[in-house]
Amino acid sequence: MEEFFVQISQPVWWISVIVVGILVNLVSAYLKEKMDRTMASTSMWWRNRSARRVKAWAELVSKIRLDEKEYRRALRKQDEHRFHTMAFATFGIFTVISATVMRGEETMINQVITIILFFMSTLLFGVAHIEFSGAKRISDAIKQAEKEGSEHIP
Fold first, then answer.
1. Sign of the C-alpha dihedral computed for residues 78, 79, 80 and 83 taken in this order
2. Percentages helix, strand, coil for the chain, rounded to the nearest 5?
């Protein structure tokens, strides 16, 4: 702590603080304009993306509600996503178990195989999550269509 106070009392420290302050001020003036443009374009992109997603959602619900073939297709797609979720999650579990078994011996090849298996299990669980999200999205669309009512939806 004493060394800190000695450093602060020297003129070199104060000059460096002033120089750094001026540099930060100059750089921030240059970057502000660029950051404002970037944030504005990102905001516009996000707004357009959200509008497209709302429109796509409304179209999906409308198709399911009005067309019996689309309703049946949505049910099949939902079941397909659920099956894929279970399959990828099961493969992920088996991969984790295999990686755990491989950790028995501490040889280099076993360590490499263990790392690869854990990486594969992470990917499998990630894909299972994506498939589950797809099933949930279709399920929500079917529920929305059922709530809005139609002749062919039980």
1. positive
2. 90, 0, 10
Query: What are the pLDDT digits (tens) for 41-75?
Result: 999 999 999 999 999 999 999 999 988 899 999 99
- pLDDT (tens digit, 9 = 90+) per residue, 93-102? 999 998 888 7
What's the CA gap between 117 and 121, in Å, rounded?
6
Among residues 69, 45, 65, 67, the alpha carbon closest in space to that of 57 is found at 65
Q: Which two tokens stand for residue 103?
A: 């950790």
Name the E strands within 1-152: none
Its pTM stands at: 0.68
> Reduced to 3 states, what is the DSSP secondary structure of residue 105?
coil
Residues near 81 by beta carbon (within 8 Å), at least 6 away in sequence: 131, 132, 134, 135, 138
